[in-house]
From TrEMBL:
InterPro entries: AB_hydrolase_fold, Dienelactn_hydro, Dienelactone_hydrolase-like. This is Dienelactone hydrolase. SUPFAM superfamilies: alpha/beta-Hydrolases (SSF53474). Keywords: Hydrolase.
Length: 229
């Protein structure tokens, strides 16, 4: 089981085991039970996992999704990226991780692209159903699809065809951008009929979502282990 640690002025969830590391960027749930379970699972696979807290102690453990969505609309890209960079520093400088990747879900998948484009220390980028619509909402300062061109690490992106937050045309543009890079392999998972956020257990009452995650997660684990071990 992991513990809460303080990094500068922010708290994060840490499951520590060794010198391979992953920074976890949660979905709308924040550091809820599910994200902590994923961090613990990564630690069980030999990967130190550190989870960013986007909502400062609020998560689906104690706050409604409606309230969390309101907090998300107030989030500042530069502030969030600075917090994530500080957590990368902590993984490398304080915990001594020799390789560190980043994995994000939904809003975290978007930030995984932005962070991976900015920090060449990142050894991989994993994005589950990233929220990267070309029609950006006001709180999206940066175009994550365009910025993905600057990622030099290997990327694994997992996309559901019934994603109502990101049209298929935007995913196709993202694929074009990623595959045009001169460095960094691109791995794609595509799940017909699955919904945005299919990783979320609350969506697994729909069989297509549960099946998508059942197939996607082992491949992502293997990718992470191959790139940070």
């Amino acid at each position: 089981m992991g513990v809460t640690v303080t990094v500068g002025e922010q708290d994060a969830y840490l499951a520590r085991v060794g010198r391979a590391g992953m920074l976890l960027l949660p979905m709308i749930t924040g550091i809820g039970e599910q994200v902590r379970a994923w961090a613990d699972e990564l630690a069980g696979e030999g990967i130190t996992a550190l989870a960013w807290d986007p909502f400062k102690g609020r998560s689906t453990d104690n706050t409604s999704r409606q309230e969390l969505s309101g907090l998300l609309r107030q989030m500042d890209d530069d502030t969030a990226l600075a917090e994530q960079s500080a957590l990368l520093d902590y993984l490398v400088d304080e915990l001594g991780c020799s390789k560190v990747g980043v994995i994000g879900w939904c809003l975290g998948g978007r930030f995984a692209f932005l962070l991976g484009a900015r920090d060449q220390r990142v050894a991989n980028v994993v994005a589950f159903h990233p929220t990267v619509p070309s029609d950006r909402p006001p709180h999206h300062t940066y175009d994550a699809i365009a910025e993905a061109a600057g990622i030099t690490a290997p990327v694994l992106v997992s996309y559901p065809s019934a994603d109502t937050a990101v049209p298929n045309s935007d995913f196709e543009t993202l694929q074009t951008v990623l595959q045009a890079r001169t460095a960094g392999a691109t791995f794609t998972q595509y799940f017909p009929g699955a919904d945005h956020g299919f990783s979320d257990k609350s969506r697994h009452d729909k069989e297509v979502n549960a099946d998508a995650f059942r197939l996607a997660w082992p491949q992502a684990l293997a990718f992470m282990k191959a790139t940070v071990a």
